[in-house]
Predict the 3D structure of the following.
Amino acid sequence: MAYRIPSAKVLEDSIRRVIREQQSIPSQRRFTELVLEDLKRKNPDYKVGEVRMRKMALHRNLAKVTILYRETKEPSRKGRCPVCTSPTEELHNLTLDDRRVELGFKCTKCPYWTGPRKRVPVRYTFSMIGAIVPPAKKRGRYAQWKFA
């Protein structure tokens, strides 16, 4: 079976459309399914992976991502972010006697951070950036007043 990889522009448009329709999507798998459905309408041969789609949503600011974690027993180390593969930077603090204490690491691009023990992402929730709920229409002469 042949398949085609959508261009970045086509994938970005699909992600925008799905986020606008759904407002909030509770898992990465469901998000991928919805984006694939949208892509299949354009070309039935299109395929996209969960990781590529997540990175596209993060790096192009198409969606706000909330991450749930589990903590492991191994210590955290500086390196690449497990969410978006960007470099991580050290979080530190100064004590009262001017000694530097390492607190953990945080990603430079996404909301991922880890403390002294390594945190592993378990679930991603995607939502619309700056979603504004339209206010209910006010009707009548005294609509701006609230009566008890």
